[in-house]
UniProtKB/TrEMBL annotation:
This is N-acetyltransferase. Gene3D superfamilies: 3.40.630.30. InterPro entries: Acyl_CoA_acyltransferase, Diverse_Substrate_AcTransf, GNAT_dom. Keywords: Acyltransferase, Transferase. GO terms for molecular function: N-acetyltransferase activity. Residues 12-162 form the N-acetyltransferase domain. SUPFAM superfamilies: Acyl-CoA N-acyltransferases (Nat). It comes from Roseobacter cerasinus. PROSITE patterns: GNAT. PANTHER family: DIAMINE N-ACETYLTRANSFERASE, GH14572P-RELATED.
Amino acid sequence: MVQIEMNVVFEGDIRPPGPEDLAVVADMVGQLAAYHGDTASVTVQELARDILGPDPWVQVLLAEHRGVPVGYAALTPMAQMQFGRRGLDMHHLYVAEGHRGKGVGKALIAASRHVARARGCHYLSVGTHPENRQAQRIYDAMGFERSDPPGPRFRIPLGAEA
């Protein structure tokens, strides 16, 4: 059992994934993408590079209940250089069907806050679909402040080999 801040209790463990977990993480990423109408194309090799490689791009927290993975949070670095502030973005938060409403998501959020603090971050951010009112209520209840983006963002494709 994991008890993290704010009286969040989860009957399981939260830990970083190892190489043996990457196929399960890839499957959960696919399920989250499908929920949002996307098709995930990430491979186990790409997850190994980005999570476990010498220059990790993403920090993942894996939630397990009785040894079975039931969710994950994926954290990516952010910065506000003009203020000298570091942050983490909870880029993904996923809880497997059948385990929702049992504290898994709240425990992953609390664990993500703990990781952000341990890494010297000033903030943890998360985005959600505008119509996902349940997620918005949870984030409000857990102390997140609404911070809608100030303006449009742009990106440029760099090619498949980038």
